[in-house]
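INTERNAL AUDIT FORM
Audit reference: QA-55
Scope: verify that the stored structure record matches its stored sequence.
Auditor: D.O.
Record contents follow.
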Amino acid sequence: MTEQRAFRPETLTVIAGRPPHDVDEPLNVPVHLASTYVAGGSREYGRFVNPSWTAFEDALGALEGGRCVSFASGIAAIGAVLDLVPVGGVVVAPRHSYTGTVGLLSDLESRGLIRAVYVDIADTTAVAAACKGAALLWIESPTNPALEVADLPAITAAAHAAGARVAVDNTFATPLLQRPLESGADFSVHSATKYIAGHSDVLMGAVITANDDDATAITGRRTLGGAIPSPLDAFLALRGLRTLHVRLERAEQNAQELVRRLDGHPALAEVRYPGFGAIVSIVVAGADDAAAADAADAVVSRTHLWVHATSLGGVESTLERRRRWPAEAPTIPAGLVRLSVGLEHIDDLSADLLDALG
């Protein structure tokens, strides 16, 4: 790990989590299909550890600068962090957050286990004020799907000054564009389903922390809850991670050029892009919410290359009107369509979307 940290992130995506370079040994850690181990060692049972997980965790941990614990899904990883909040604790979170996160917070609050306070994560002063007396500040930056950007160092410092822990959902940015632990966060969380694995064929999550006690606690939540990834998913996620830097570079270039081509389009009320990454949100214009929703749905239905799908971060470009989900925040515009820009040629992507916009 110490030697790996001397390398640039693009190199780490390729080399981290590899087995020793011994003669006649494979370059990659193979898929370990084992539920039971011979007793007397450190493994014992398949719910505790798996070498395929460990290889993935070593690689992503090296990229984020901490110890990684992998999970069966992104929501399982989020749940493990929220499980560390003491009963009755206050969790401060963005008002525009992933609907799964909001669903978990709502469920915990309905059972009297926590109290959730929602803020505009881009309003540093308001976030700092809300952290007084809080147990945890949960950050998305950029937010999903509003794409608001937080001042990570400032609000992390404010939260710590108030006695709160800090967790950052780093799914959209990935560790190549943002390393929350370097800004002081206690936890960096990923839906590895998205950019990390990158091929729309894996469900996995991850939590990374620089604190050994926190890593032990998170591992304990996984062991007790049983939200373990499959060895095959861990193998595929690590294989996807190997090309993250080239995939993200191409997708980001496509996103930036697409934003340029969409600027000022008469069918759009707004184009949202945080300036980095490959997620763009467009707001289709309409006289009212109903008209905007209908117009956005029509755009989604008319694309041929763009795929109507709720996930993101794969090699293929996807789009979705987010308010079609009842759990989406009512402050998200009814006509907002989230675009996950993929690796296709930009001329084909833009032509398909512009045709759909009419």
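Auditor finding: record pair retrieved intact. The mean pLDDT is 97.
Action required: none
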